[in-house]
Every structure is written in C-alpha cells, then in structure tokens.
Amino acid sequence: MDNKDTISVLNDLIETSKDGEKGFRECAEDLKNPQLKTTMTQRAQDCATAAAELQQLVRTLGGDPETSTSVAADMHRRWVDLKSMITGKDDEAILNECERGEDVALKSYRKAMEKDLPMEVRSVVERQLQGVQRNHDQVKALRDAERARS
C-alpha cells in the first residue's frame, strides 16, 4: 500500500473519529442523567484525541489531514434531531442513536484493518479499534441499563 492510499484510509478514520466526537457531544447535551452526560463528554474527548493522533500520522506521511465530519453523519444527526422533536428525547432513545453511531465507527475501523497498512499505522489503528469497541460496549450497557429502568 502506498502513502497516498494509507493517507486516504487514515483520513476516513479521522472523519469517523470527528463524527464520534460530535455525536457524543450532542448526546451529552441532550441526556438528562448527569452521570451519562459525563460519560458521553469523556467519550467525545477520547474521539478528539484519536482524531488528533491520526492527523499527526497523516502529517508524518506527508499528507493533508482531514479536519471535518462526514456528510453522512451530519445527515444522520439532522434525522435524529427531527425524530427527537417528534418523539421526545428520552435517555434510552439518545443512547440508542449513540450506539448506532458506534456501530458505524466499528465498521469503518474493521474495514481499515483489512487494508495492507504499514506496521506503525496498523498498530495505531488496531489500538483505536479496541477503544471504539470499548465505547460501543459501554454505550450498549448504559442503554440496556436505562431500558431496564424504564
């Protein structure tokens, strides 16, 4: 895999991380439970840190790092906002949408791991994939706990 292809994969993951950061921040804003707000704010920060790490890798490879979220994620957030206005924003529904976003992130990272990435890039992507999996599992557990309370 040449540098150009590696940079493209990394830029896709930067977009994914930026999507996660924005999605978690919006979830934190809408959640009523203060503990959930704190958890989602921390997940947003984790995504921002991951994006910054990937951006540095792109610079090291001589590329121009992505700086924005994806159009698909922006459209999804607008759909969630519209749906929320109609159905109300309860914590379980917000966590459902948060988990859906993490499903997309997992898919993006797994797809990147199928590529023939240089070893130093692969190790970063693999470590971040594990973080995305932890985020997903935590959001799912929080959603299930919220569902049990309802």
Automatic annotation (TrEMBL):
> Which is an annotated Pfam family here?
DUF2383
- NCBIfam families the record matches: PA2169 family four-helix-bundle protein
Q: What is the native source organism of this protein?
A: Stutzerimonas zhaodongensis
**In which residue ranges is the amino acid composition biased (Basic and acidic residues)?**
134-150
Q: Where is this region: Disordered?
A: 128-150
Q: Which residues form the DUF2383 domain?
A: 5-115
| Record protein name field | PA2169 family four-helix-bundle protein
Q: Which SUPFAM superfamilies match?
A: Ferritin-like (SSF47240)
Recorded hits in InterPro entries, A to Z, give:
CHP02284, DUF2383, Ferritin-like, Ferritin-like_SF, UCP029477
